[in-house]
Amino acid sequence: MPRRTLTAAIAVTALATPLALFATSGTASAAPVPPRTPMTDFNHDGHADLAVAAPFGTVGGVEKAGYISVVYGTASGPATARHQMISRATPGVPGDLQSSFAFGAQTLPGDLDGDSYTDLLVVGGGGDDREPTVLWGSKDGLTGQNTVLPYWPSEFALGDFNGDGKRDLVVNSEPSDDPDVSGMTIQYGPFTRDGKTRTQDSITTDDGPSGLRSFITGDLTGDGVDDIVTTHGFEEMQHEARFWKGSRTGVGHTSKALGTAYSGTVGDVDGDGYGDLITRDIGSVTEVIDSAPGSITIQYGGSTGPSNTGKKVITQATAGVPGASEANDAFGASLSAGDVNGDGKAEVAVGVPGESLDAATGTGAVILLKGASKAAGGMTGKGAIAYNQSTAGVPGVSESGDDFGRQVSLSDLNKDGKADLTATAPGEDGAFADSGALWNLYGSASGLTTTGAGTLSPVKLGAPEKDAKFGHTLGG
Q1: Which of 14, 268, 328, 397 could bridge across to 354 with cysteines, CB 3.0–4.6 Å?
Q2: pTM value?
Q3: Alpha carbon of residue 124 to chain centroid
């Protein structure tokens, strides 16, 4: 990736608890404001939508050109009645169909221009297709307007880092032309249709070239303003993550170390009003990421951010967690937090795409960890439940290489105030190998239920199946 200073404005989405409306007020001294993020609603009809990428799908005879299926929500959840297939061949989407460019390798939803319609930022996976393309929301759904953002980031996220109710973008663009410096640039929204904002700020992270790896965003201090956690490393080594506090004047330029982390999410798992940090930790060496059994770390939030006080480490060897901690499980490959049963405490969906069942290897699973108050010991393995295609009521059959749980999301799909689970299996076979599929399981007062569980796949949406890996990336 070329190193370049970010000189124009840009756009993307937040990693935070995917349930409830966005908070725009609150102070650290007042009652804490639970972490929240907007609904993904591309057509602003009040129902949650999904953007499911098939970045290796064949489009117009071009293999691995990639496409995105946009599935619009209804009162009972996402349905096949209305959907779009968007690729480089779609009018208004810049660029041409090219093999191996993998349109949709990264997708992130968020209302970039402040018009109440969720937009979608899309990045390809190869060649010259790594400049972000913005698909703009409208009453008719997503539309392309030839908007390309002039940089090649590898990581980016959205949040409201100055508490004005507008989406801001953070990217791992070096704020210096010095190749030995890394850092991040924050674009404070809203964005115009040509990708510009009024203000930006750059922060040097002082950890050497290419040191900043990813972002986790969400309100960890209870003040109604999103914060940033950055993960760091160089080559195969993982370094300590850092916490950067957001405020009414923007993100501060000082940070505190949190321990090693690879990726994560934010959710109030103990119900005290402060967002908690849930991260995937695969140790100090990341050469083969998914070869480790995997573990997650929970650091509870407070007025000064996440703390090591009461810190929890959970693996499949933790009492109450289904399965066994084994090589290649990749426990925590995807994480999402949301209140499944409506008790005010967020559950955490943990993707375990390498989990094996009996003789079938790499079938995958999702483990739901139950939220619990600090008085009850906080989040542990108690009450954890595993879901896979062998679970009663879950459609399909567990087979080797399904990769079930590669992407997970907890969001309110049917507008009942409870988070629902979306889980993908890009290795699921249809008429072709690795065509991919996703599952929706709905929340209830007693937790996730398989009653009414539904699936979406390329064949159901009339989209190309061959090698598509539908669900490799999930937006919404």
Answers
A1: 328
A2: 0.92
A3: 17
